[in-house]
Write a structure and sequence with these properties.
Helix content: 40-55%
Order of helices and strands: HHHEHEHEEHEHHHEE
CATH class: Alpha Beta
Number of domains: 1
Largest sheet: 7 strands, mixed
CATH architecture: 3-Layer(aba) Sandwich
CATH topology: Rossmann fold
Shape: globular
Strand order of the largest sheet: 3-2-1-4-5-7-6
Radius of gyration: 16 Å
Number of strands: 7
Oligomer: single chain
Amino acid sequence: MFDAIASRYELVNKLMTFGLDSRWRRRAVSDLRLPRQSVVLDIAAGTGDFTRELVRQGHVPVATDLSYGMLHAGRAMDERVQADASLLPFRTAGFDGVTCGYALRNFSDLAATFDEMARVTRPGGRLSLLEVAEPRSGLFRAGFRLWFRRVVPFIGSLVSDRAAYHYLPQSTAYLPASEEIVSMLNRSGFAAVNHRRVMGGLSQQFVATRSS
């Protein structure tokens, strides 16, 4: 499915977030609080939005994704590796940080994926994740649901793949509650896990430090 939408993936992302996703990724990379030239693994990198932001902020990214089509369609991704996030082909403690954007709900084994994120991150290294959320305010939530569940699939069907963009809003059903994600990250070996809601709950971010 992701191979099929790779060529229009970034366009649809911009349309469905009104371009705000770029701002959210910029903040997420900044929140790593890592020195320049840190080596950062971008998991579920897609076509490279997060990867390119890592470069812009002076880091050395390695992009990985299960979808070859996504990686092939990506731009300015010098290091890219096709891999399963729950079984990463990288050495233990080999990265200063890990990023992942809007993919947690697509992993078939989220606990194993968090374990792998922790394994490849050095002690004291940093994690920054972005994922969809739903606003808590009644009116705002109703508007979001209309947009995300009705309008986004319609836009996706016009410019990309109809089936894929009907699946993506529905995939939020596979996403654990934020409190459970915090607990899972703790169990995997991350400490000081911080969760924040972005833009009134349109998105959410998790930042953590690899335990020593």
